[in-house]
UniProtKB/TrEMBL annotation:
Record carries keyword Protein biosynthesis: yes
Organism, as annotated: Delphinapterus leucas
Classification via Gene3D superfamilies: Ribonuclease H-like superfamily/Ribonuclease H (3.30.420.10)
Name of the protein in its database record: Transcription elongation factor, mitochondrial
Keyword Mitochondrion: yes
Cross-referenced Pfam families: HHH_3
Length: 367
C-alpha cells in the first residue's frame, strides 16, 4: 500500500479533510481496531441503573399515579404542586428537566384545565410519563445550585476535552505531563510542569513506518525507541486527531495514526495494570486549536506564530505565559529557527497541547 509522495514530503496531515466515506478496508484492520479499543478505552465501572418496566395502559397508568403520590410526603407534594401551579414558563425553565416544551406544556395544561390537584394529574400533560414525572418532582425538590451547575458544566467540558474520563482529584495532583504529537514522519513531545516550565522539548523522526508494509514489529521497535528517550511524568497526553477522509487513497495515513496511538497508549500505560488507572490520555486536537484561536471553520491552522511569540515573551516578559529555562532557551530558539522553513507542526503542537491541557483541564478544576 503506497502513500502519496505529497504526504511523505509534508509530514503532517490536516486533521479535517472532509467526511470519510465508506470504501474497502484492508485485511486485518478489524484486529487493529480491537487492539486500539482495548488499549485506549476504559470500560465504565459505574453501576448500571435498573429501570423497572412500566406498562402505560389506562389501568396501569392509574396505578402508577397512585404509586407516585406515595413516593412523596404530603409536605413535599404541596411544595411541588405550588411550583407547578404558580410558576411562569420562564421560572419553570430554571429547572433543567423542564426546559423547552415541557415547561410550556405545563402552563398550557394549567390554563386549559385549571391547577394541578395532585401529582397524578401531572401525568396527563403531554411528554410526562411515570419515570419523567418522578425525575421532575425530584428536581423541583432539589434544584441545582449555581456551584453545582458550574461543576456539572465543567465535567461535561472535561469529558469532551480528554479521554478516558479522569477524576478531578487526580488532575489537581498532577506535577508534570509529557505532551506527545505524532505525524507521518516524526514524533514530538514537550515535558512541562504545573508552573508551565518547559523541562524538555524535542522531536525524533521515524521514516520506516509508512513504507507500505505496516509490520507490527517495525512499529514496536520504532516507537519503543522513541519512548525510551521520554522523561517520566504523571500523565502522557496524546493528540486525538480523529481525521476522516473523502479520498480513500489517504486511508493509510489514518491507519498509521491509529496504530501509532495504540502503540503509544499500550507502551506508556505502565501503571494501568498496577492500580487500574490510566496514565495515558487523549486530548481533542480542535479543542487545543480553539484555545489558541487557530481554528478557521473546522480546519486548524499552524501554531508556529503562537510558539514564536511564547519564545519571545519568555525572554522579554517578567512573568511570561510559559517559562523556558535560561540554560535551554538559546537551544530551543535555535531548534525553532532551524525548523521554521519546514513547518514542523508536531513540534509546535506538542508544546501548545501541553499548555492547553494545564489551562483547560488542570487549572480550571482548582477553582
Amino acid at each position: 500500500m503506497n502513500v502519496p509522495s505529497l504526504l511523505l514530503a509534508g509530514g503532517r496531515v490536516p486533521a479535517i479533510l472532509g467526511r470519510w466515506r465508506c470504501f474497502p478496508v484492508p485485511l486485518g484492520f478489524s484486529l487493529f481496531q480491537g487492539l486500539h479499543n482495548s488499549c485506549c478505552r476504559k470500560k465504565s465501572t459505574a453501576p448500571k441503573k435498573i429501570i423497572p418496566h412500566v406498562d402505560f395502559s389506562d389501568e396501569n397508568a392509574k396505578e402508577s399515579g397512585k404509586a407516585l403520590d406515595k413516593l412523596f410526603s404530603s409536605e413535599q407534594q404541596a411544595s411541588i404542586l405550588h411550583v407547578l401551579n404558580t410558576a411562569s414558563n420562564k421560572e419553570l425553565e430554571a429547572f433543567t428537566l423542564l426546559r423547552g416544551k415541557k415547561s410550556l406544556s405545563i402552563v398550557e395544561h394549567r390554563e386549559k384545565f385549571g391547577p394541578f390537584q395532585n401529582l397524578e394529574s401531572l401525568m396527563n400533560v403531554p411528554l410526562f410519563q411515570y419515570k419523567t414525572t418522578i425525575q421532575v418532582c425530584n428536581s423541583i425538590l432539589n434544584p441545582e445550585t449555581g456551584g453545582k451547575k458550574r461543576k456539572l458544566q465543567e465535567n461535561r467540558l472535561l469529558r469532551k476535552l480528554i479521554k478516558p474520563e479522569i477524576g478531578r482529584e487526580r488532575l489537581k495532583a498532577i506535577n508534570s505531563i509529557v505532551s506527545i504529537v505524532s505525524g507521518t514522519r516524526r514524533i514530538a513531545w514537550a515535558h512541562l510542569d504545573r508552573k508551565l516550565a518547559v523541562l524538555d522539548w524535542q522531536q525524533t523522526e521515524y521514516c520506516r513506518l509508512m513504507k507500505g508494509t505496516y509490520l507490527s514489529s517495525v512499529y514496536l521497535e520504532e516507537i519503543s525507541s522513541v519512548i525510551s528517550k521520554m522523561p517520566k511524568a504523571d500523565f502522557y497526553v496524546l493528540e486525538k486527531t480523529g481525521p476522516s477522509f473523502q479520498n480513500s487513497s489517504l486511508f493509510p495515513v489514518l491507519l498509521h495514526f491509529h496504530i501509532t496511538e495504540a502503540m503509544l497508549c499500550a507502551l506508556l500505560n505502565t501503571t494501568f495494570t498496577q492500580d487500574g488507572h490510566h496514565q495515558v490520555l487523549s486530548m481533542n486536537r480542535n479543542a487545543v486549536g480553539r484555545h489558541f484561536e487557530l481554528m478557521i471553520g473546522d480546519t486548524r491552522t499552524s501554531g508556529k506564530e503562537v510558539v514564536k511569540q511564547l519564545l519571545s515573551e519568555s525572554v522579554l516578559k517578567e512573568e511570561p505565559r510559559v517559562f523556558f529555562p535560561l540554560d535551554k532557551i538559546v537551544h530551543y530558539r535555535q531548534m525553532f529557527s532551524s525548523t521554521e522553513q519546514y513547518r514542523v507542526e508536531e513540534l509546535y503542537d506538542s508544546l501548545l497541547q501541553a499548555i492547553a491541557f494545564y489551562e483547560l483541564a488542570v487549572f480550571n478544576t482548582e477553582s
